[in-house]
Amino acid sequence: MxxxxxxxxxxxxxxxxxxxxxxxxxxxxxxxxxxxxxxIRNAVWLPSARYGICRTIEHVLNDSADVYCPxxxxxxxxxxxxxxxxxxxxxxxxxxxxxxNVNSAPVDSADYGVVLSEVFGHRFQRELDSALIxxxxxxxxxxxxxxxxxxxxxxLRDQDVAVISFGLGKSLYSGWGGMAFTHDDIVAGYLxxxxxxxxxxxxxxxxxxxxxxxxxxxxxxxxxxxxxxxxLSQRRQASAARAGHQPATSRAPxxxxxxxxxxxxxxxxxxxxxxxxxxxxxEFERRRCELAGIYSRELSRLDGSVLRLPATESxxxxxxxxxxSSLNRDSLRQHLWSAGIDTATLFPFPADCHPAWFxxxxxxxxxxxxxxxSHQLTTSQVGQICEQIRAFPFATSVCKVAA
Length: 403
Prior knowledge:
The protein is an alpha/beta fold. The protein has helices at residues 11-19, 27-38, 49-60, 75-83, 131-134, 150-153, 185-198, 204-220, 223-242, 268-279, 281-299, 326-338, 359-367, 379-391, and strands at 42-46, 66-70, 87-91, 112-117, 138-142, 161-165, 178-182, 320-323, 368-371.
């Protein structure tokens, strides 16, 4: 079974970092490595990217400020804005892509912020010159799914903050945590003080459980056992759905019970894995770009008829995300699953919103399929995935991908 995503290391690498790494595993050491590698003044380790989004908004914007954010993004980004106490303003995505339509919101206020979620690693470029972004008091570039490089951080100005994630499914996965980047010493100092107050005291038992879970999760993504475990997970989800248990929505009531992503402390192993990933980031990016190029070439003759392929990127993506008609989407995923290929459908439409409010996001959420993309994939595996997609009997007589 080809997993939908994999950790950027295997069990052997994990054990080497645990037992043989010369690194001390300190926060200061990791932050300096990231700052030097990316030529940024400040790098701040965080419990999660969502933590950095929330705390930065709290620090920079007034209580009455609006924060503009894409409807098409992970629901935890919406949660982070809501927890900041500021007003969340969702915007539709562009009709021809995955990113927020920055030209769809006339803004009168001088005190507002924007969270630019670069989903799947697709970047905002020319859009940064739009009035919405240029006039924002605060700009947060949410690069949680990306592999950052120096080009990315050269986009930052003044109080801007970029955040990345090391959580499950991310390109630089190392168990948990995230990193904030900024040129502003005051913002960086605030994030460090806030982080230190939020993190719980480290306990041996908790660290042991965290590292054990990391090892189990790494082993679970080995091809030999991945399919069996994913099947069991799907059965549990189906059973929960039949019992009436609904998944969390983007407007689920906020409680004081924060998940570990708001307070957990790093272990030395997670910091060492993060450092190893940062050192290999350019290698990871090159390989992802190569594989994305193969997907594009192999699927190009289907593009515009029954598939829409993502725009070509010079950056490494977290997934190669295609679109097909909603009438084909689920059956194509099942076809790929039967051929030993797991896929994802990130992200669901916000449960508390009406599709008419965000028509492009609504359509995208019913059409998208996230294909595997990681540096461990072989060229032959990508060829196998493309061959299975080309062999699928698309219902072209009744539906085509929306233009």
